[in-house]
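User: Study the chain.
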Amino acid sequence: MSPNSIQLLQSDMLFNNELMDTLLAQAKVSPRLRQHFDLRTSASDTSQRMLNALWPGTEVPVHRHEETAETVVCLRGKLEEVLYEAVQEGGEQTFREVSRQLLSPQEGLYGMQIPADVWHTVHVLEPSVIFEAKDGAYKP
């Protein structure tokens, strides 16, 4: 667990406006403009389940999860999930955008499944809170 995450101690918790407001307030003052909230209930839980509050301007490097798909559900706000393919140019790996999916619950666009091994990032359009889930323990 990250030292700046809020650890969930109860097994039953509502994802309500108070929680979303608190996470967004913490994200706003974070140097990275984001704050995650770990939803695992014990150290033996090897899943990856979290809420992630994000502000416009946060920089999430293009990355992939080689062994697991990622489920992303937008609970509040508006953002784009951007998918890429890796390309070799002049002996260097770069990325070419192949898809950009808007997620906005106000527009009925709630979430998506990002397949395993697909390069992706997020472009935050307005303060947002997402639910993320991946199989297996975190691997840096």
